[in-house]
Amino acid sequence: QVLLVESGGGLVQAGGSLRLSCAASGLTFSRYSMGWFRQAPGKEREFVASIRWSGTSTYYTYYAVAVKGRFTISRDNAKNTVYLQMNSLKVEDTAVYYCAATQTSGRGPMSSWECEDWGQGTQVTVSS
Predict the structure, then answer these.
(1) pLDDT per 10-residue tile (average), the chain, 128 residues
(2) What is the DSSP string of 41-67?
């Protein structure tokens, strides 16, 4: 059974930074594409960033326009962990952030519908 556990959320002032972590178990982590999504109150869940397995030893990253240049997704296959470094945070980044996994390889953004497993979410609140 796949288990994804997020951590690292919290309260930060606008302009600050946070690093989210997602520890995975129950899967062959290096062969999974991993992504981050977020959901703000009253809004639909949206894609944030992905680091997709290409089917070989290469991984491709992709970012939503709203976070490109500010957020960085990375992974440590030895630790079965994916990270989201968030810099220059804005009030509009406030949301519950979810880690997701899919066995689908490729490039480009991940879609919610292709993700087989989800974490429980971690709250990120950015104050002005």
Answers:
(1) 97 98 97 98 96 93 98 98 98 98 92 95 98
(2) TTS--EEEEEEEE-SSS-EEEEE-TTT
